[in-house]
Amino acid sequence: MAHDRQTAHGSGIVNLIAGVAATGGLLFGYDTGIISAALLQITADFTLGTLGQQIVTSAIVAGALGGCLVAAPLSDRLGRRYMIMFAALVFIVGTLVASLSPGVVVLVCARFILGLAVGMCSQIVPVYIAEIAPREKRGQMVVLFQLAVVSGILVSFIAGYLCRNQSWRLMFGLGIVPAIILFVGMSVLPRSPRWLAMKGNLEGAFEVLQRLRSDPQAARTELDSIVAMHDEQAPWSALLQPWVRPAVIASVGVALFCQITGINAVLYYAPTIFAGVGFGQASALLTSIAIGVAMVLSTAFGSWAVDAWGRRRLLLRLIPGAVVSLMVLATMFAIGSTHGINTWITAAAVVCYAIFNVGSLSVAIWLVGAEVYPLSCRSKGMSLVAATHWTADLLISLTTLSLVQALGAAGTFWMYAAINLIAFAFVWRYVPETRGRSLEEIEAALKAGTFNSLT
């Protein structure tokens, strides 16, 4: 009984830590998603054309690309916890500047500042959670970050709808609340035990592990395995080593396909696209809320499935659904979906696509990136994953409206259907199953050359 109480206590602490850290994901989702509704007002206030809309939208993505690259060396030097706290401060500054922006130039700069914080969180929060979570719960714990991301997106869609008759400045300003919660919460949480061990502070690492596991013997065994696999902090060039390459291919590939399969095209521009094909502005915003609910539910399902089914199986089972949904969506736009039943088929196809895409690739991206790299270059590997994500996101956000104009909505979604099919083939070939394995066991498989054969 005493052991059970200790285990429950340790699990409760881990859950609390993961929940507070995942608030960074809530900010990530809110600040990237709120532009969907705000853009309708900002376009009118600042008389923006297509290029202007894409620049305002993509500024946060450009900042995120820089933020995730800066976070890697700083998190290795200062620690995961302090970097998350710093990101929270940047969120606060960016939110204040955005909500008070007198013109489009200041707004773009504010969105870039917010992007820096988003990029930092996307790089370091999944790593922090992965390094404190027990192996049997690591999947759902890391996916908690993605669940917070899509929850933030849903909150942004709801806020956008409720504030549609208010100022877009209020939409941006509401983001300051979770930023303050993240900063205060992280200030009282422990440092990563694996980061402490990497820095040579084995006593501190053991104290943290003992607190997290509530079993001195289990904590000692885990610390011994960390020390046994430990190498010194590696430079960026370590990612080019042949034995690390399978991890790079798997994680970067999932990150790339997470974006180029089209989910953020739907996320950023759904109201604009739907308003353009006959939905009223309020109806378009309500459609976005339905998408947000679908994303939260599918991510919650994915947080269960990554440990129950496995990472690879989840991807292979859900991606085909995204392909079919996009084919239906493209067909509806091709035949005209502005009246009657076709309108609702179009909306249903978008929601189904969000369920299948978010429940697979978006669930897996941060988890795969956080767990496949060896400790010596994990932070830099995760930066590469995040940089790939944000580079592809920048490309999507800068080109979506132009693609719709050039190819038509139908052609654009046919293209995304084909890319989802390619993503399925990539997962089948290059993404192994890491469910139930410790981070050190995954690293050992890389060194032994058996990483791709993990099932």
TrEMBL record:
<dbReference type="InterPro" id="IPR005828">
    <property type="entry name" value="MFS_sugar_transport-like"/>
</dbReference>
<keyword id="KW-0812">Transmembrane</keyword>
<dbReference type="Pfam" id="PF00083">
    <property type="entry name" value="Sugar_tr"/>
</dbReference>
<dbReference type="GO" id="GO:0005886">
    <property type="term" value="C:plasma membrane"/>
</dbReference>
<dbReference type="GO" id="GO:0022857">
    <property type="term" value="F:transmembrane transporter activity"/>
</dbReference>
<protein>
    <submittedName>
        <fullName>Major myo-inositol transporter IolT</fullName>
    </submittedName>
</protein>
<feature type="transmembrane region" description="Helical">
    <location>
        <begin position="282"/>
        <end position="302"/>
    </location>
</feature>
<feature type="transmembrane region" description="Helical">
    <location>
        <begin position="413"/>
        <end position="431"/>
    </location>
</feature>
<feature type="transmembrane region" description="Helical">
    <location>
        <begin position="50"/>
        <end position="72"/>
    </location>
</feature>
<keyword id="KW-0813">Transport</keyword>
<feature type="transmembrane region" description="Helical">
    <location>
        <begin position="142"/>
        <end position="162"/>
    </location>
</feature>
<feature type="domain" description="Major facilitator superfamily (MFS) profile">
    <location>
        <begin position="17"/>
        <end position="435"/>
    </location>
</feature>
<keyword id="KW-1003">Cell membrane</keyword>
<keyword id="KW-1133">Transmembrane helix</keyword>
<feature type="transmembrane region" description="Helical">
    <location>
        <begin position="12"/>
        <end position="30"/>
    </location>
</feature>
<comment type="similarity">
    <text>Belongs to the major facilitator superfamily. Sugar transporter (TC 2.A.1.1) family.</text>
</comment>
<feature type="transmembrane region" description="Helical">
    <location>
        <begin position="112"/>
        <end position="130"/>
    </location>
</feature>
<dbReference type="InterPro" id="IPR005829">
    <property type="entry name" value="Sugar_transporter_CS"/>
</dbReference>
<feature type="transmembrane region" description="Helical">
    <location>
        <begin position="381"/>
        <end position="407"/>
    </location>
</feature>
<dbReference type="InterPro" id="IPR003663">
    <property type="entry name" value="Sugar/inositol_transpt"/>
</dbReference>
<dbReference type="InterPro" id="IPR020846">
    <property type="entry name" value="MFS_dom"/>
</dbReference>
<feature type="transmembrane region" description="Helical">
    <location>
        <begin position="314"/>
        <end position="335"/>
    </location>
</feature>
<keyword id="KW-0472">Membrane</keyword>
<feature type="transmembrane region" description="Helical">
    <location>
        <begin position="168"/>
        <end position="189"/>
    </location>
</feature>
<dbReference type="InterPro" id="IPR036259">
    <property type="entry name" value="MFS_trans_sf"/>
</dbReference>
<feature type="transmembrane region" description="Helical">
    <location>
        <begin position="84"/>
        <end position="106"/>
    </location>
</feature>
<feature type="transmembrane region" description="Helical">
    <location>
        <begin position="341"/>
        <end position="369"/>
    </location>
</feature>
<feature type="transmembrane region" description="Helical">
    <location>
        <begin position="247"/>
        <end position="270"/>
    </location>
</feature>
<dbReference type="InterPro" id="IPR050814">
    <property type="entry name" value="Myo-inositol_Transporter"/>
</dbReference>
<keyword id="KW-0762">Sugar transport</keyword>
